[in-house]
Amino acid sequence: MVLLDMTVLSVAEPDLAASLRTSIAGLQWATTGYTVVFAALLLSSGAVADRYGADRVFRSGVVVFGAGSLLCALAPTLGILVALRVVLGVAAAACVPASMAMITRLYPDAAERTRAVATWAATSGAAMAAGPIVGGALVGLAGWRAIFLVNVPIAALVLVLTAGRAVHRPRGDRRIDWAAQVTGCMVLASSTDALIAAGSRSWPHAAGSGAAAVLAGAVFVLVEWRSPAPALNRALLRAKGVGAGLSVGAAVNFTLSGGLFVLPLLLQQERRLGPIATGLAFLPLTLPFALNPPVTGRIVVRLGARPPILAGMTLMTGGGVVLGCAVRSGAGYGWLALGLLLTGLGVSFALPALVTAVMGVAPEGTAGAVSGLLNATRQTGATLGVAAMGASVSLGAGAGSAYAFLLAALVCAASAAWFARGTARRPGNSSPETPTGSLDE
């Protein structure tokens, strides 16, 4: 449901812009209003799940998500829609780390947990694969408002399926630093606003938001340094290769969400495809999300997480280059499909392996917080991807879409290089099952 809401909106962008009479900047906020809050609250929502019980937090998030989606379908203006998307971001942040914490408890054996995470990723991937197609069909039949109504029956079904005691998680005693949470949200919101303003060539606005982001970042560091219960899990961050691994998560979502924002505008406005045709055009990108994660899970069990992560990032880099060159040269859909397929395969290799690796070095009793940190990093990447790649489209005129994809390729290449170096094996290196383990196994 959460990931469907990220991809289903992409195909609706042109209809949404025409209906609410908004610009690319307005569309960016309709998307990032969700991901900014989603990303920022994930810093603490994992700790909230650990503190109050993951099953309780999960079900509460599902209720709010379903109700908020219904209200989004009734939004009369862009401002109200963005505000409601913020509410959905809060609910999504409650759902994701709590779901992973419940899986961790249900599957304590490492091999079983790896397969369960792969199934979780495949289910999420199926939602992402269905999003553009479902969105295209709904927009073609009833307009953009219909895409939010899809979440209502899904939310009701999830509440029924999780009504038993099997997913119950006990309460914990983790403390939550709300000051760090608020300042973290300010950092991401100001940074996003600066990029969107720059794309609109509102340079004074961009400079002011950039300065606010720097100031909020300094306050966040100070608050975290003094906090007895920091939002960032320091034990996990000390593990070898974790920082590089988190950069991979950010790069994957930067490329994926940015591409899902840029491509519908290109296909519908420049290549004159309808909503349904646009949704079908995404299949080379989205089908691997649903089909490949179980294969990746088996590779991780046999070879470890590092090989599929590096392979995935290499594929995504190549996909960005192919897409950028295809858009720049005006090549046919076949080249676009190749770039989308490379990108989709890359995501389906890198992401499940990364989730398994990071959860594998989580300290005891912190599965929700660790999942929250990983997903916060990913959604931060998604937010910045929409803002930066959207700004590239605005600033680059006719070649803007090409520059956006080449920017994504550069981000993936840099992240892959950092991960390869940060997880390189050294003589005598091992992979202990402790919070100071590593991601190279």
UniProtKB/TrEMBL annotation:
Pfam families xref list? MFS_1
* Record GO cellular component, one term: plasma membrane
InterPro entries (alphabetical): MFS, MFS_dom, MFS_trans_sf
Q: What is this protein called?
A: MFS transporter
Q: Which organism is it from?
A: Planotetraspora silvatica
Q: What is its main location?
A: membrane
CDD domains for the chain: MFS_MMR_MDR_like
The transmembrane residues are 29-49, 61-81, 87-107, 119-140, 146-166, 203-223, 244-267, 273-291, 303-323, 335-359, 403-420
The record's gene field reads mmr
Phylogenetic placement of the source organism: Bacteria, Bacillati, Actinomycetota, Actinomycetes, Streptosporangiales
